[in-house]
Each structure stands twice: as C-alpha cells, then as structure tokens.
C-alpha cells in the first residue's frame, strides 16, 4: 500500500486527518527508495521497527481531533496491512531471506495483487 492509503486507513481506525499519520507511514515506506520491491519491508516492517517508531516520533501524539494516539499502534496497523495481518520479527525476515522460503506474511496482500 502507498503511505497515503495507509494514512486513510489510520483515519478510519484512529480518527483525525490524513496529515496526522502520513509522516509515520512515509517513514515506514521510505525504504522503497532503497529497494523497489516489496522486500523493502524487511528493513522496518517488523516488531523492532515498530518500536523504533517511538524513538523517532514519540510514544504517542495528539491527532487533529484532540485524541491521544499511540505511535506503536499506528505502526502495528501498517505492518499488519502489508504483512497479511501478521507482525514478523527482524529475525523472521532474516530467516526468510536466507532460507529462500516465502512465509504467508511476505506474500503480497490482496489489494496489492489487484494494483
């Protein structure tokens, strides 16, 4: 999914406006500029990457509706959307890359297959 689509999804889930979430989703997907393939997710789409978001964006923020939103929850939602409702660890990504086996959570989501 595109960061804008993730942001729209976050608005539905957490409230607020697209702009409240776009920086977080762009950060997670910036690695697309490194690797032009869905495998770019191995760099930040994992449990450790989600906790890294708190270091970059803070543990929580107030959205445009005045509601406190936990940064980690936004990151978890993003990764689940991209990894078939699963949050892998960094080790699972490494194991996937080194073994050549493609687990269910690496496969593209239905929405991406349609694009």
Order of helices and strands: HHHEEHHH
- Oligomeric composition of the shown chains: single chain
What profile does the largest beta sheet have? 2 strands, antiparallel
Unreliable stretches: none
Number of helices: 6
- Estimate percent helicity: 40-55%
Total count of strands: 2
Using only C-alpha atoms, the radius of gyration works out to 14 Å
Mean pLDDT: 90
Read across the widest sheet, the strand sequence of neighbours is: 1-2
What fraction of residues sit in β-strands? 5-15%
Shape: elongated
Total number of domains? 1
Measured between the Cα atoms of the first and last residue, the distance is 9 Å
Class derived from helix and strand content: mainly alpha
Quickly list its features:
6 helices, two-stranded antiparallel sheet, 115 residues, mainly alpha, 54% helix, 2 strands
Task: Describe the model.
The chain has 115 residues and is mainly alpha-helical. The protein has one domain (3-109). The chain contains six helices and two strands; from the N terminus they run αααββααα. It has a two-stranded antiparallel sheet. Helix 1 packs across helix 2 and helix 3 (47-57) packs antiparallel against helix 4. The radius of gyration is 14 Å and the shape is elongated. The model has no long low-confidence stretch (mean pLDDT 90).
Task: Please summarize what this structure is.
This protein is mainly alpha-helical and 115 residues long.
